Amino acid sequence: MSAQLLARLRTAAVAVALSATAILPLAAAAPAQAATAKVDNPYVGAGVYVNPEWSALAAAEPGGSAVSNQPTAVWLDRIAAINGSSTSMGLRAHLNAAVAQAAGKPYVVQLVVYDLPGRDCAALASNGELGPTDLPRYKSEFIDPIAAILADPAYANLRIVTTIEIDSLPNLITNAGGTATATANCDVMKANGNYVNGVGYALNKLGAISNVYNYIDAGHHGWLGWDSNLQPTIDLLKTAATSSGSTVANVHGFIVNTANYSALKEPYFTIDDVVGGQSIRATSKWVDWNRYVDEQSYAVAFRQKAAASGFDSNIGMLIDTSRNGWGGANRPTGPGPTTSGDAYVNGGRIDRRFQAGNWCNQSGAGLGERPTAAPTAGIDAYVWVKPPGESDGASKVIANDQGKGFDRMCDPTYTGNARNGNQMSGALPDAPLAGAWFSAQFQELLKNAYPPVTGGTGDTVAPSAPSALVSTGTTSASVSLSWAASTDNVGVTGYDIYRGATKVGSSTSTTFTDTGLTASTAYSYTVKAKDAAGNVSAASNSVTATTTAVTGDTVAPTAPSALVSTGTTSASVSLSWGASTDNVGVTGYDIYRGATKVGSSTSTSYTDSGLTASTAYSYTVKAKDAAGNVSAASNSVTVTTASTGGTGNLGCTATYTVSSDWGAGFNADVTVKNTGTTATSHWKVTWNFGGNQQITNLWNGNKTQTGAAVSVTDAGYNGALAAGATAGFGFGASYSGSNSVPTLTCTAS
Q1: How far, in Å, CA of 653 to CA of 636, rounded?
Q2: Are residues 241 and 323 in the same domain?
Q3: CA–CA gap between residue 18 and residue 372 (Å, rounded)
Q4: Domain contains 278
Q5: Distance of alpha carbon 319 from alpha carbon 215, whole angstroms
Q6: Do the domain assignments include residue 423?
Q7: Distance between alpha carbon 210 and the CA centroid of its chain, in Å?
Q8: Which residues belong to any copy of the CBM2 domain (predicted)?
Q9: Is this model's pTM higher than 0.70 or not?
């Protein structure tokens, strides 16, 4: 280990709330005017700077005083931010304020260093002031002045935590070099090396200051969690960390979910869950083969892989929890139904975005975990790097002198593009420019906070455990419970009921009935109390109750009738059938492939997926009721999946839409629809431009262009379309003169 980092001894994680008023002394604090030695985790035993500018804005909002004392990062996102202005504090002013807040005790200041040349590949909402070739200016006008101020002995006792250049390096992995979502600007930045060299220069200059702790941005699980992205990202970060004179010793850690909305922990499903005999990685469009479902699991894995790739074995991680609480009325209270992978994940996920790539001013989001030191092993802190209430981007065109454009992903009416699965943007309306105060968003974050926000009391006391839990009655399908009320220093807001280890419901009273159970079966229950601050009690006593035997309803439903196949692809069979009847009521259907149950449905249709092409499969369906009675099997139907070559009535159409046009270039989306009666294996779209348009990048397809003639074929994974199904691709192009919409021809095979 280098002398610069000293020995990093990571101890067992003990969560410590971070605030300006809760400061825990170090075991051997240095004299007030002497620089302290670099520590393993800068947040442990230290207070954290509360930015007075953000605090004042938050406190001015109704209810905002409950969180206005939370520490947030100071963003250095342009050269002018270093010195500040008559209306904004500069870097030195913030550091002076931090020294005053610290009052001689250990204290953390959080800075975001964010002004690379060609920043964010010139993304519209977050475009920076420096051009792609302005690396010399980045060094001399941005990094060097910051380093000079941080090295001032007046600030030697502060622990200065820097977040280094969010988004830009991960962009070189996913949006450059021939990837499906590559852009011309990202290709330029990958080719000129200025992201890598700029980050290396920043790490080297800032890392030379003994009380600076550098954390490199590492994206989030919904961006980099796939096998094809994660290790290449770590390799690129190491390349940057060893460029421009830097070494990996200048990297104290990594930060994930910066300014993003990905859930910290998904409580109701894991990446290893299986539904209908298949992994949710394969069957959930939300997961879509990702290795991770939340930021906690992603951060832990990133840390392990980074250490294995040459970074320090005790490298630390930060997680930005400023806007990933996802509380409020729409927060799920348990797992989704197991009728399909999509239903299971979508019904249980607390992250309620339309798509995990949606990033701008997301509707329904809430404040997340409050800033906390060492919440779990390997995680240095939960932090609020993105100050809640600051906009991600304007929802419409707003004239400005900051170089910030209008990104349709910030427009609440935008229906999406191929890069976000043609989903709605999910953005809030009436948003100001990126970084400007957005009162409506702050109010929504307060409303949907999880843990919930209470009126600034700092309540950390959990309610007492519920007592005297008993079963007050059973039927063949239900168990009724009651318990004695808990007490709390502020007030109990409700109770969560657990069947075994699974939360099955909540109640604001001291009674609950669990339904949908199986007759003659023993179930074990506990109850936990909760308060408005999110504190949760210990579990009550456990009680076991056995449902009664069925003494009344012994009549099975009638067998489903008229089972037929309604469609096939090379990998799936869709089925429908006539509804069964029952003397009490049908509760669902079980679908069998041969003798194997492959799924259940509460409707009269089902799609069996993950099959082999050109293969015959035999199906039956059985109905069931609440008493557990099961019908005889339906008629049997044998269905053969389509061949990968595809035969029969094939056809497709292609629809062309320009999503944005800035005069010298444009983005377009093309939707391909199977208009035939059998599944496609592949499709091809051709057209001739009417002018000098040249495609510069294309995603979700493979293209060739000769002059005005363009041909795009599927990307392999999106070639198989069931009858009536759609796929899409998109592209960016340059042009001059006119930009008329071409006539497209689609061919299916």
Answers
A1: 35
A2: yes
A3: 5
A4: no
A5: 11
A6: no
A7: 34
A8: 645-749
A9: no
Which phi and psi (to 5°) does residue 746 adopt? -115, 135
Q: Which residues contact 325 (CB under 8 A, 6 or more apart)?
A: 365, 366, 367, 368, 369, 445, 448, 449, 450, 451
* CA pair distance 601, 587, nearest whole angstrom: 9
Residues with Cβ < 8 Å from 603, sequence gap 6 or more? Answer: none
* pLDDT for 128: 78
Residue 258's alpha-carbon distances to 163, 198, 218, in angstroms, are 9, 19, 8
E strands within 277-358?
A: 278-279, 316-320
120 catalytically annotated: yes
Q: Which residue is catalytic, options 77, 115, 120, 407?
A: 120
> Same domain for 88 and 126?
yes
**507: CB partners within 8 A, 6+ apart:** 494, 495, 497
Residues 155 and 58 in one domain: yes
C-alpha–C-alpha distance, residues 534 and 514, integer Å: 24
Structure tokens at 7: 């020995």
Kind and range of the H or E element at 672?
A: strand 665-674
Tell whether 497 and 595 lie within a shared domain.
Answer: no
Residue 657 pairs with which residues in a beta bridge?
A: 669
Token pair 């980099």 is at which residue? 224
Domain that holds residue 143: 16-270+293-332+360-390+436-447
Give per-residue burial for 322-359: e unless 16+ CB within 10 Å, then b: bbbbbbbeeebeebbeebbbbbbbbbbbbbbbbbbbbb
Order across the sheet with 694-699: list the strands: 652-661, 665-674, 726-734, 694-699
| 385 inside domain | yes
362: exposed, middle or buried (Cβ count in 10 Å: 0-12, 13-18, 19+): buried
- The CA distance from 111 to 598, in Å, is 53
Question: Of 546, 575, 609, at which residue does a domain stop?
Answer: 546
Residue 241: HSE in the Cβ half-sphere, 13 Å Cα cutoff? 26
Are 697 and 710 a contacting pair, CB within 8 Å?
no
The pLDDT of residue 31 is 33
106 in the same domain as 138: yes
Q: Are residues 579 and 658 in the same domain?
A: no
| Domain identity same for 631 and 669 | no
> What is the mean pLDDT of each successive set of 10 residues along the chain, which is 749 residues long?
31 42 32 63 95 94 91 96 93 96 95 94 72 96 98 96 96 88 89 97 97 98 95 97 97 98 96 94 94 96 96 96 92 91 94 93 95 93 97 88 81 82 89 93 94 67 92 89 87 84 81 85 92 81 89 85 80 84 84 89 83 86 88 89 64 82 75 85 89 80 89 82 81 84 87
373 and 327 fall within a common domain: yes
Number of compact structural domains in the chain: 4
